Amino acid sequence: MFDIAAIISKLPKAELHIHIEGSLEPELMFALAKRNNVRLAHDSVEALRRAYAFSNLQDFLDLYYQGMSVLLTEQDFYDLAMAYFRKAAEQNVRYVEFFFDPQGHTSRGVSFDTVIGGLARAQAVAEDTLGLKSRMIMCFLRHLDEADAERTLDQALPHKDKIVGVGLDSSEKGHPPSKFKNVFRRAREAGFKLVAHAGEEGPPEYVWEALDVLGVDRIDHGNRALEDAELVKRLARDRMALTVCPLSNLRLCVVREMTAHPLRRMLDAGLFVTVNSDDPAYFGGYMNENYAGIGAALDLSEAQLAAIARNGFAASFMPEAEKRAALIAFDEHLS
Ligand code: ADE
Ligand code: ZN
User: Fold this and answer.
1) Vertex 219, ends 190 and 271: CA angle to 5°?
2) Ligand 1 contact, 170 CB (< 6 A)
3) What is the rounded distance in angstroms from the CA atom of residue 333 to the CA atom of residue 335?
4) Backbone φ and ψ of 311, nearest 5°
5) Average pLDDT over residues 70-88
6) Cα dist. 254→140, 187, 262 in Å?
7) Could you tell me which of 261, 255, 220 has the C-alpha nearest to residue 241?
8) How confident is the model at residue 2, as a pLDDT?
């Protein structure tokens, strides 16, 4: 027997799939509601936590959008991100690429600059005080139309130096990647990396579209790719990284139970798998809990856990020299 919790907590980790708004813990949500005079639908932290029982992605998204209504000022976004960075650093996460959903805020009258200002200030402080480096990925909400995404991209362009990539999230079914073909083309031309949630609830065709129509650099989730043998071959051949989120998959009923999670089959098929937390405040755990949950359920070896952690750095959007140094540091840590 090996002490899986000790091994995981010591592993240097990179997180590539975390929605910063999904790190809003109920306690901070209530504190910000009070500070901003926002009325919440639940009257206590306990009642809110009890409501975190989801049958599917949409159930969760309804509460996720409600929750973010407390985020109004630059300081709120700073506080949100700092709380996540502290938690990540405690868990030996050494590098983060985090998503934010500008349309979830601009639609409520909060300016793009307010959002990005608070997040960027937290990034700088986290790097100085915690030694935790991070980059931002701006997501388009796929339940909205492409014109809305185009306007959001326009707002992001003056902040290009602060945003490494663009992504696609929110309600997957009925909103295929191809709906965002033009805005992704424009984002690529502007120099952004591209990612998209695909194959979380949606069919393998959505993963094909993310690859062939959008031209993504990573797939977020990708679970349902395993239903299509040709697609699995393609993902393996291209060494396309998947940002897998075990506790999220369990809580959103993407998998029946953790032992049924496809991650081992992904590894067996030679896929480039990373482990991430998605929306840790809603799904019962940050990085270590995700590694522990999947490691125990699938009986992963210490070497497999380390290989997955290494993949997090290898699949990142760090510039090449920075990535090389991060991988050398990772290997030295293990030796
Ligand atoms: N937004 C926040 N978390 C998400 C998820 N798991 N899937 C799609 N959109 C999201
Ligand atoms: Zn996600």
Assistant:
1) 135
2) yes
3) 6
4) -55, -35
5) 99
6) 22, 30, 10
7) 220
8) 72
Q: Which two tokens stand for residue 192?
A: 């952004």
| Residue burial 281-300, b: 16+ Cβ < 10 Å; e: rest | bbbbbbbbbbbbbbbebbeb
pLDDT for the residue numbered 327: 98
Span 53-68, average pLDDT: 98
pLDDT tens digits along 83-100: 999 999 999 999 999 999
Q: Which atom of ligand 1 is nearest to the CA of 279?
A: 3
Task: Tell whether the model's pLDDT for residue 323 goes beyond 90.
Answer: yes
Residue 1 has what pLDDT?
57
CATH code for the domain defined by 4-334: 3.20.20.140
pLDDT at position 220:
99
Average pLDDT over residues 3-26: 97
Is 150 noted as a catalytic residue in this protein?
A: no
Identify the residue whose tokens are 């502007």. 190
Cα(115) to centroid(ligand 2), Å = 19
- Parallel, antiparallel or unpaired: strands 163-169 and 193-198: parallel
Distance CA 24, CA 157 (A): 27
The domain limits of the chain are 4-334
In residues, how long is the chain? 335
For the chain, give me the number of helices (H) and strands (E)?
Answer: 17, 8
Q: How many CA atoms lie within 13 A of 50 on its CB side?
A: 7
Task: Give the distance (Å) from ligand 2 centre to CA of residue 114.
Answer: 23
111 CB-near residues (< 8 Å, 6+ apart): none
| Beta-sheet pairing, 93-100 with 193-198 | unpaired
User: Mean of the per-residue pLDDT values for the chain?
Assistant: 98
DSSP string computed for 246-301: HHHHHHTTSSSSGGG-THHHHHHTT-EEEE--BSHHHHT--HHHHHHHHHHHTT--
